[in-house]
Design a protein that fits this description.
This protein is of the alpha/beta class and about 200 residues long. Helices cover about 25% and strands about 20% of the residues.
Length: about 200
């Protein structure tokens, strides 16, 4: 099971996540309490192992600006968390994750239109487009077809529920941000335990 730790803002947390087996780290380049500048992300990314995916999270950003941040920061994957169309997702030159907020089965109707490398299913939007720490009903994903190893599960995952989530949904990857925080900051012990639980879930 692959694990992505999202909302990285400092090198120590990035190194802890990698040390304990994180496969991907997320850097948020949009309005969020976890927002980071491209220059600050670059300083972290250049000190990380090559095999770890560095994912930039964007919301309704222009293609030109996304490409610019890819160049500046060194991210090697783009996660689109807004209202991007299928054509918006085909212009970046790096792998793309398209995020979908799932509150009902109707929210899954348009997923097949997106020929992205991965699709991420998250809880319905709150104050921010992601990272709100809310669960959604995983049973809504039971009948989705032709996703296979493209599915990334997010939304309210914690040390306590990630094992059940993996066994229920069988995703390619799980993605966590607020679920490994204490008082709004990344908690290194929670990161360690979350990765352990996810890796041993099956």
């Amino acid at each position: 099971m692959k694990v992505k730790i999202c909302g990285i803002t400092d090198l120590d947390t990035a190194r802890i996540a990698v040390k304990h087996g994180a496969d991907a780290l997320g850097f948020v380049f949009t309005h969020s309490k976890r927002e980071i500048s491209p220059d600050a992300a670059r300083e972290i990314i250049k000190q990380l192992p090559e095999e770890v995916d560095k994912v930039g999270v964007f919301v309704n950003e222009t293609v030109e600006r996304v490409k610019e941040i890819v160049e500046i920061s060194g991210i090697n994957m783009v996660q689109l968390h807004g209202d991007e169309t299928p054509s918006d997702c085909s212009s970046f030159g790096v792998p793309v994750i398209k995020s979908f907020s799932i509150g009902s089965v109707e929210d899954l109707i348009n997923v097949q239109e997106y020929a992205t490398d991965f699709v991420l299913f998250d809880s319905p939007r709150g104050q921010y487009h992601g990272g709100n720490g809310k669960l959604f009903d995983w049973r809504l994903l039971e009948n989705i077809e032709n996703i296979g190893n493209k599915l990334i599960l997010a939304g309210g995952l914690t040390v306590e529920n990630v094992g059940e989530a993996i066994r229920t949904v069988q995703p390619h990857m799980v993605d966590v941000s607020s679920g490994v925080e204490s008082d709004g900051k990344k908690d290194h012990e929670k990161i360690k335990k979350f990765i352990e639980k996810a890796k041993n879930a099956n």
